[in-house]
Amino acid sequence: MDKYWLERTELLIKEEGLEKLTKANVLVIGLGGVGSFAAEFLARAGVGNMTIVDGDTVDITNINRQLPALHSTVGKHKVEVVAERLLDINPRLHLTKINEFLNPERMDQVLDEGKFDYILDCIDSVTPKLTLLIAARRRKIKVVSSMGAGGKTDPSKVMVRDISKTHNCYLAKQVRKRLKKEKINKGIRCVFSNEIQNEESLKMTDGSNYKRSFYGTISFIPAIFGLYAAAEVINYLVKKD
Q1: Where in the numbering of this chain does the THIF-type NAD/FAD binding fold domain appear (predicted)?
Q2: Would you say 110 and 26 are in contact if contact means Cβ atoms under 8 Å apart?
Q3: Apex CA 210: angle with CA 207 and CA 212, to 5°?
């Protein structure tokens, strides 16, 4: 396969930048509305090694916001759908698929085996998210964490800041509170929106999969969270010595 598909990228970041992306090894955990777009942006930028993790299958309710979700993919494993797409973008991508929801022991195992340059935390449940953030922090692996994209409609309010600077986000508030107990107050980059959540869009659930409730979502907000997360990683890798 010729490398001309990356010609425009090379014009911008030069051969040296492209080489850094080709050699990089990135972990994306969660392939929903945020993670699926983030993984695609990484692949299209030329990141050469990626591990994608998600134990979920495509549900009809995912179609409004998730890249792998189509009427034709309902019931299929998100990891498989996303993997097929990423390899169609870059057939030379070294891709590892992990089709499971990682428990703490597996999280440790994956992080220890991977030698990752960067982790994208696109998990939308508090407990597994915290497990990942703490595990990454202990290993000094760089991580960008996606906070709550639900109940929000203004893309201009999305930004990347340190966890200590997040506000108007319930998920970030819970994460900050529980990280504090682990003596972690800062040092984790977060994608969040400072728009006030639309409380009328909240729905309670049965509490399965660590989720007791969720907010309504619109097509473009999770995607822009994924865009910001991917940009954080790509720009870091290109500038890395």
Answers
A1: 12-240
A2: no
A3: 40
